[in-house]
Design brief:
DNA-binding; alpha/beta; 12 strands; elongated; homodimer; six-stranded mixed beta sheet
DNA sequence: CTTAACTACTTAAGCGGTTAAGCTGAGTAT
DNA sequence: ATACTCAGCTTAACCGCTTAAGTAGTTAAG
């Protein structure tokens, strides 16, 4: 670990050229005698040589760096990583990347021109972007030819792989679950539908499930707010007013459902007696609430892992434009009551 | 954004040497006429030139990359980023870094030799490491001369800045709060004390507060477990047995307190009627539970921000070996009952 | 005995920047 | 007229590595 042992130092030490050392270290096609190989390898150990990645990447025009971009804010001013959903995705991407010898550079500042500049400057070999809903930036990204995989994105631009869950199905299952439990007057608490493709799909699922059961959708019972604990809590004021007529509610995010449950307490409405609630995401915390939150499960960590797999494929020049859809399922806990 | 516009391209376009362009772009001391400056700047725009960071860092031997290292696992097999405590710190570091033109490379694999290698290879200009309790690796890091700032670390090695809260004081406050509320038979649920400096300090605080109030510490009521929701839940079995004698409990992590509350439900013990609980960290979720979790607040995001500030100072060659201690305070919610 | 085909290397030209040192010509001092 | 200064550049070495192309020595084939 002595400062600055270079390839040249190793080469001199062994008495060969830097090219030979480079070939040995990178296992290229060149034929090198076993003696020389061993001599080089042990010199590397002895001298404590480590490659200079900048030089390596500059010379080879490849890089072992990938970027992960998350939205700047979701709901409030906190970093989105404070939301364990993003944290878990990030963690699983990093784990996969590390195993493959890649490092992860993060940015919590949305996918914007600034980020594209960085990706470009750093010669990132790939980008994973979470929750992008604007086509504009994607077409710019497309020009850079950097491999990109999106997570939970709904865009017209179809140049990229996309890993997501079946959002519509999730919402459909959630709504149907309430219906199966005897509910017919079911509300919907969600993020802003216009700006957010995920919310659009989930709204579709809700709509279709109602339709199939012959229930009219009541627009008064669709509550759009930002996605956060606090906004969920604040929604309680409006939702309480819809009671007792409304008996069930589909929430498109566990965080909103959790905030809501807290907020409802103020209005003395208890879950699930006065209102059945079903969440979405199955965050770890959902299992530790009282009552436990019945919710739509998605394999969060798997999303990250799958995204990295796809990215690696693209980096290696394989496949393109896949839409990878992970399954969802209902996790039954205690926040939904069966209506007789 | 056309592929590979280099400094040379800009220089040729304007009709000057690459040196001149470099001087203009980096604002160095060299005197350059305004005309030339403007010509270069507009050529940069026109051609869509972006520097190649690898080349830049190679030539200048500086880098705009910092590393953030978190422990591999805490409690269970999930990525620690799923714990919003770490997520929030990471987010705040990234925000600060971005504003200063730095990028953040993450690693969730503990601070180990492998990471030091990466730091070295990548020429990281600094490292922020969270929750390091082993001196061995720190002395190795010390040799590399890379600026390092630790967060929540308690190590003998005093070569580095350390940002933390007053853990002992936090625990002391928490315990005193229970005492002030009439509790005298107070338990302690914590992480493994031996392996974890933070837990040691918090245990001290608990001990001292009891001592000051003339209360004997009952070792039976000290529950050591891993720090996670699930381990908190599992602890309920043992803690329930200590009731009704024990009336209050200090938890050294909100996640444990939350898991515990869930677990206690199974044993039909209610909080705070049957047991008063005070947490530690003031995670966002603490405010959205029912009952709201009374807890020791720490400014999590600020920890990250302060750590980056310190790091930047060191990178710039200023100050060394500061111990930055952020304040703690009690947030009163509803999980503690006043005993008559 | 040539020639071809290997093996086991070396040479050297980059990759895209930085930066110390040098050069040039106009302006000023002597 | 001569020397000095200094603004405004240029030159070129270098950062540490990759890699196409070349070379020498051996062995096998014709």
């Amino acid at each position: 670990m002595n400062s600055k042992v270079t390839l040249k130092d190793v080469a001199d030490y062994v008495g060969v050229s830097t090219a030979t050392v480079s070939y040995v270290l990178n296992g290229k096609q060149q034929s090198i005698s076993d003696e020389t190989k061993e001599a080089i390898l042990s010199a590397v150990k002895e001298l404590g040589y480590y490659p200079n990645m900048n030089a390596k990447e500059l010379a080879s025009n490849r890089s072992q760096l990938i970027g992960v971009v998350v939205p700047q804010t979701e709901g409030d001013n906190k970093s989105v990583f404070a939301n364990s959903f993003y944290g878990e995705i990030l963690g699983s991407i990093e784990r996969e990347a590390r195993q493959q010898g890649y490092q992860v550079v993060i940015s919590c500042a949305d996918l914007d021109d600034n980020y594209i500049r960085i990706a470009y400057e750093r010669n990132l070999s790939g980008i994973i972007a979470i929750g992008v809903y604007q086509d504009g930036i994607l077409s710019k990204l497309s020009e850079t030819k950097i491999p990109v995989v999106l997570i939970d994105s709904y865009c017209k631009t179809k140049d990229f792989d996309n890993v997501r869950i079946d959002d519509e199905q999730g919402s459909y299952l959630a709504t149907s679950y309430l219906i199966r439990n005897g509910h017919r007057r079911i509300g919907f608490l969600c993020g802003h539908i216009q700006e957010n493709g995920v919310m659009q799909k989930r709204f579709q699922g809700y709509r279709k499930a109602l339709e199939k059961a012959g229930i009219n959708l009541n627009p008064q019972w669709v509550f759009e707010r930002k996605v956060s604990f606090e906004e969920g809590r604040l929604a309680a004021a409006y939702i309480a007013k819809a009671l007792p007529e409304m008996t069930g509610l589909v929430c498109t995010a566990d965080v909103m459902a959790i905030g809501l449950m807290k907020g409802l307490h103020t209005y003395r409405v208890t879950v699930p007696e006065d209102l059945s609630i079903i969440g979405f995401d199955d965050l770890e915390i959902a299992n530790y609430l009282e009552p436990g939150l019945t919710t739509v499960h998605q394999a969060i960590a798997e999303k990250g892992a799958k995204a990295f797999d796809s990215l690696l494929n693209e980096i290696r020049g394989n496949s393109r434009q896949q839409d990878i859809v992970l399954p969802v399922s209902i996790i039954e806990r205690e926040s939904v009551k069966e209506l007789k």
